[in-house]
Amino acid sequence: MRKEVTMEKENTSMVQQGFKCPYCFRKIMPDGVAFRAMTAYSPQDLEDDPDAVKAEKMIYALREDELYENFWRKYPGSKPVDTESHRTYERYPVISPYDDRYITEAKFRSGEKLIFRRDEDHFLNEVIDTEGNSSKIRICPHCHNRLPFEFGKYPVKYISVVGITSSGKTIFLSQLLRRIKEILARVDMTVAGLCPEADEFVRGHTIRMGQNLPGGNATNVLTTPVPINVKRNKTGERYTLVFYDIAGENCVQPEQMEKYGQFIVNADGIIMIMDPKQFTDLIYIPEEEGEDIDAYSPDRVVDAMYNAFVSANSAGGKSSIPLAAALSKSDLLKGHQDIGDHRNMFQDIPYGEYSQKGFPYDDWNNISTEVWQLLSRKSIKGEILDNGLKQFFPRHSYFAFSALGGRPRVAMEGGQRRYQIDISAQPKRIEEPLYWILYEFGLIEKVRKRGQEDPKSRGIAGGLFHKKN
What we know:
The chain is α/β, with parallel strands linked by helices. It has helices at residues 13-17, 43-46, 51-57, 66-73, 169-178, 180-185, 196-204, 249-252, 254-260, 262-265, 287-295, 298-313, 361-378, 380-392, 432-441, and strands at residues 19-20, 27-28, 34-36, 94-95, 115-118, 124-128, 134-135, 138-139, 156-163, 189-191, 226-232, 238-247, 269-274, 323-327, 359-360, 396-400, 409-413, 416-420, 446-447.
């Protein structure tokens, strides 16, 4: 008989406190996670077995998972598929340490027992079923979605990337994730462990010269959360960052906000991507594009987020969540009569001018002031946005980036506009909004350029830089 490994008490306060599921956001205690069994039988597998054997194996019969299906019914067309094996495990049996609705030790009378195993940090991460098959597929006990690698072992920070479909949000996130190791290395952090969801997101949104650029996630579609485990090199502390790709249209429409609002309500940080074309008094756009762009202007997204959760859940009607308001497609602004091509937004961050790794404070200060001046002084739409952020998200800052490093060209296919690039993509400043968010989280420290005096305070984040102008 196999030796049973008993469940020991957790020895870390973080694990004892539990964590939120990245899908349904209900609290999970580490010992309360469930597993997908790797033993599973179809009716055909059992048809030749004697009745007694069949009865024992029926506990591992394939069946529809009601909790899992109920979650994804809210998001038609969004249910994830394992593209590598072209199968999913949602019909495989569920093993739970304590829930008698599923496979538990209490269901067996033959002496065989389930074995729950922990890693060297006492983190519950494996089960051996009664037929000797191992599973490390941990799932949420509430919605039965698969939990990412080591999810819940480290403190989790949720980052929602919000923007309308044409804003360049998905391309931004793809380029960010593709270069995440290099980006984090510049602020003295390391990607720690597996991140297959990030790799899958990048594969699904590839950016190649001469090929159509990936389209944004469609309205009403939920993109699978993208988790990354990171390590602070200086302290050795580890964290899990979870990115969400949220269509801005889902934030504006009240009926959609009920479904998608939880991915903003539970965010620790928000990166709001804004297409320069959304500021119709700042940059010319063709008439046929104007109606859709105006319908989902940035100030409407801010208002919708406020109405959905800030007004009810935040003291004084102000959110404490850091919000990075970032202009995408900065190339469109080149040649603008009020913007010189020498501006910071068109330049790479000069890391060589900093003596240490960390949040490039001086460049952030310059770019945030530069973008604020452009929007609030040259565009009434920008002024309205700025007023909304001051009132509802006072902990905010401005950014501008180019995810491609150049303007794509339009290619017509079947009467539809497609966009392609004729050079290799060379992103500019895509990392800066993330750096600021990590700085606001307290995960990275600010650094100054050589010869610059250190300010008396921690910084001038949260919109306070406006007072300098």
